[in-house]
Design brief:
The chain has helices spanning about 30-40, 60-70, 115-150, 155-165, 170-175, 180, 190-200, and strands at about 1-5, 5-10, 10, 20, 55, 80-90, 95-100, 110. By secondary structure, the protein is an alpha+beta fold. It has two domains: about 1-115, Nucleotidyltransferase, domain 5 (2-Layer Sandwich), CATH 3.30.420; about 150-200, 5' to 3' exonuclease, C-terminal subdomain (DNA polymerase, domain 1). A four-stranded mixed β-sheet has the order 5-6-7-8, with helices on both faces. It has a two-stranded antiparallel ribbon with strand order 1-4. It has a two-stranded antiparallel ribbon with strand order 2-3. The longest helix is centred in the middle third of the chain and has 33 residues, at about 115-150. The radius of gyration is 24 Å and the shape is elongated.
């Protein structure tokens, strides 16, 4: 899975955020995955206007993969560069710094740690990471919902939705008492006790 975020006037523009499920790459191949995502984004005319700058999360390899696809698509205009974090120094005294990789340049540019440019590009990269992590968290939550709530006797789709709407997460349902569970619309006392017994047998939840 890959994520894309957009910034306008130094601020996140969330209407342009997008997630990409990698479809055509077998195994773990960062370069091929980058090429696929860039092709799907910039080969699709419905994705809107071209940005002023395309910031690639990665070093020379990821940058070259993206540039190859942009050239293949005949896209010119946006500046493109890669951003990769690096460390230097001895163990315990390591310092992190940002490296910018430019097309056609073998060596990266080291950005001054306190500069406004460094803070901006790092913020863009970190926002893309946050967006991806949030998506993975939601996927894990969905899997947890299926593997746990669907296995509880008497808890069908309607009650499951009501429980999640009321408590907000599976983790909070695990910790709820029968009295608290029975307050949820559509959840009977018997169903509430079934939930408590289910989690007690799994060794989680309240005693």
């Amino acid at each position: 899975m890959a994520s894309m975020v957009t910034f306008e006037n130094n601020r996140p523009e969330k209407r342009g955020y997008k997630k990409f499920k990698i479809k055509g790459v077998a195994g773990q191949d960062d370069f091929a995955s980058m090429a696929e995502v860039v092709r799907r984004r910039y080969g699709n005319p419905e994705m809107g206007e071209l940005p002023d700058l395309i910031l690639i999360d990665g070093g020379k390899g990821q940058l070259n993969a993206a540039l190859s696809v942009l050239e293949e698509l005949g896209i010119e205009g946006p500046d493109v560069f890669g951003l990769a974090k690096a460390r230097s120094g001895e163990s315990g005294e390591e310092r992190e710094f940002e490296r910018v990789f430019l097309p056609g340049k073998s060596d990266p540019i080291i950005l001054p740690p306190a500069s406004a440019a460094t803070h901006l590009v790092a913020r863009v990269r970190d926002e893309a990471h946050r967006f991806a992590i949030e998506y993975h968290r939601k996927l894990r939550e969905k899997r947890a919902v299926h593997s746990e709530l669907d296995d509880i006797p008497g808890i069908g789709p309607t009650r499951k939705k009501a429980l999640l709407r009321h408590f907000g997460s599976v983790a909070k349902i695990r910790e709820a008492t029968a009295e608290e569970l029975a307050l949820v619309t559509g959840v009977t006392r018997k169903a509430a006790e079934e939930i408590v017994v289910f989690y007690k047998n799994k060794g989680v939840g309240r005693e």
